[in-house]
Amino acid sequence: MKSPGSLRLRLLLAASVSVAAALLLAGWGLGHLFERHVTRRAMAELQVHLDQVVAGLEQDAAGTLVPLRPPADPRFGRPLSGLYWQVEAGEATLRSRSLWDSRLDLPPDPLADGQIHSHHLPGPDGHPLLVMERLVTLPPRLGSRTVRAAVALATAEIAAARRAFTADLVPYLVVLGMVLVAAAGVQTSIGLRPLGAIRRRVGAVHAGTRSRLGDDFPAEVRPLAAEVDALLERRAADIARARARAADLAHGLKTPLQALAGDVARLRAQGQGELADDIAGLAETMRRHVERELVRARVAAGQADARADPAAVVGRLVEVIRRTPDGSRLAWEIDLEGAPPLRIDRDDLTEALGNLIDNAARHAARRVVLRCEERAGMACLRVEDDGPGIPEADLARVRDRGRRLDTQGPGSGLGLAISADIAEAWGGSLELANRPGGGPGGGPGGGLVAALCLPLAGSSVGA
């Protein structure tokens, strides 16, 4: 079910209300038109009856008017049938049997000879009547007298005809309303397609398979796409400036740190070892922070359409580490055949994997294994060693900034933290776990598994 905030639902509700209102108005209008049509037909029928009433008048031997040939409609002979006629000739009044002992109370309406008037009057049973009357001067053979003839029909028949018409009309209006609402749904779907296309293209930009939305949209949507593309252009410019600032910062700090290293060496040569150690410690702290912040700045400015081949990156890294004393003594097992491309900058992947592989080479006893596992839009690059591993109590804090469990060897304690930062910046994660086993001194003894999990190229995982 669509949420209340759905634009599609709002449009469908508006269309449904509009269709319902239009059909109600149409139903009322059609009923009114039908009633007018039936009324005109009734008046035409009454006029025929009126002509028959006047034409059927005759004069008996006593000179009294009599209805020799009354209208043939049987309702005139049935009491209170709803169809009546009446003739006023001076003091005498002739009327249909349907009036029984009642009469039509015609208004004092001045009429010209032959002129027809119509009225709405109460009937003998209290129900309203449609009355048609005419003032007629009879021919000389009937005494040239003037008579007032009237015929009436109960309007209940007209109302009943309208109700029957409305009852027949309602099912068709319901079907028509359903068809119109369905048509409105189709129209809404067609009208909202450009917004769906924008949503998909924004997702593609997020996933890195597109860099811009483009301008192949309808005129009403094109300004929105143009604004989004302009925003992407500004973001690209900001990324370029961020990378440039990171590079400038790296170059700007490199020389002062090298100068401090030289000063430390001279102080030690002069026998001021304590001061030299303090300055060296401060310089190392500065270097660690600068190094991490430079990595984070570069990663934060990464391109959304970046791609990296993990097999190629691992191949180059292992080739370099094999030349080091730590790497040359190990057996390397690489199982990355068919590893999919990842959505990460190649240099960032090199940095993150380099830290993990270097860490494994320093602590492994005999071998290091590198393999890849896929998980629902993600790929996990596993770096496994057979070294002492990490005590379980330290696993949660080994990635803290500057945390070093092995203080004897080289390194700044930033490798795992930097790898974790890089993975999280690209929508992934760094997972650390000990291999099954048990070792002395509280260590696990089975080695460490570092899994760098990153989204696949073209996916939007973690975006």
UniProtKB/TrEMBL annotation:
Residues 248-458 form the Histidine kinase domain. The keyword Transferase applies. It comes from the Bacteria. InterPro entries: HATPase_C_sf, HATPase_dom, His_kinase_dom, Sig_transdc_His_kin-like_C, TCS_sensor_his_kinase. Its main location: membrane. It catalyses: ATP + protein L-histidine = ADP + protein N-phospho-L-histidine. The chain crosses the membrane at residues 169-192. Its EC number is 2.7.13.3. SMART domains: HATPase_c (SM00387). One of its GO terms (molecular function) is protein histidine kinase activity. It is an enzyme of class 2 (transferase). It is found in: Membrane. GO terms for cellular component: plasma membrane. Keywords: Kinase, Membrane, Phosphoprotein, Transferase, Transmembrane, Transmembrane helix. It holds the Pfam family HATPase_c. PANTHER family: SENSOR HISTIDINE KINASE TRCS (PTHR45436:SF5), SENSOR HISTIDINE KINASE YKOH (PTHR45436). This is histidine kinase. It comes from Roseospirillum parvum.
